[in-house]
Design brief:
Number of helices: 5
Order of helices and strands: EHEHEHEEEHH
Distance between the termini: 14 Å
Strand order of the largest sheet: 2-1-3-4-5-6
Strand content: 15-25%
Radius of gyration: 17 Å
Helix content: 25-40%
């Protein structure tokens, strides 16, 4: 699907059942006039995320949605990688929150492991991979990284996931203290702040 571009009115299936991710994408895609529907809204089953990298899992989700609907699908696989924990939780970011998801427990687990290791390095990165997949089996990948530092205790009620314990480089607030507009800081021609916004900027440049 090299050179493929979406235009106003085109249907785009967001391959997610995560309402937080859906809201973020709806915000960022609001000005492009696309007909957006999520895999959750369509009642599609969630594919098992068996990949060991963000790219593998993004591909699994996008291709499952594209195949099931016969439509172009966009997926996101994202997570936080903590340097002192050898990159964990990484692709298992959501799994650390258990079922049902409790990210308060997930953040506590990160903190407990850092304390257990006596880690003084609290650097971490949020990673995002977008996969745009076609029903014909082809795809395109867009990656974004947001480096930062972990704080404790968590601060802020905005965002979702591990946002309240992550302070991006160059800022004195956590993602949990930032509005969606601040967190993403995305606009045409700008890279943005969040990992998802940075991947999204590449997607917009190439596809919209």
């Amino acid at each position: 699907m090299s050179g493929f571009r979406l235009k106003r009115g085109d249907r785009l299936v967001l391959a997610t059942h995560n309402k937080g991710k859906l809201a973020e994408f709806q915000d960022m895609l609001a000005d492009f006039g696309l007909d957006i529907v999520s895999a959750g809204d369509l009642g599609l089953p969630e594919p098992e995320e068996t990949g060991t990298t963000f790219i593998e899992n993004a591909r699994l989700k996008a291709h499952a949605a594209a195949k099931a609907t016969g439509q172009i699908a966009l997926s996101d696989d994202s997570g936080i990688s903590v340097d002192a924990l050898d990159g964990a939780p990484g692709v298992y970011t959501a799994d650390w929150a258990g079922v049902p998801r409790d990210f308060g427990k997930a953040m506590q687990k990160v903190q407990d492991l850092l304390v257990e290791k006596g880690a003084t390095d609290r650097s971490a990165q949020f990673n995002a991979v977008l996969c745009l997949a076609s029903p014909d089996g082809t795809d395109r990948i867009f990656e974004g990284v947001a480096p930062g530092t972990l704080v404790w205790p968590p601060v802020g009620e905005e965002g979702h996931g591990y946002d309240p314990m992550f302070r991006p480089d160059g800022h004195d607030k956590t993602f949990g203290q930032m509005s969606a507009a601040e967190k993403h800081s995305w606009a045409p021609g700008r890279e943005g702040l969040s990992h998802r916004a940075r991947a999204f900027a590449k997607f917009v440049k190439d596809v919209l």
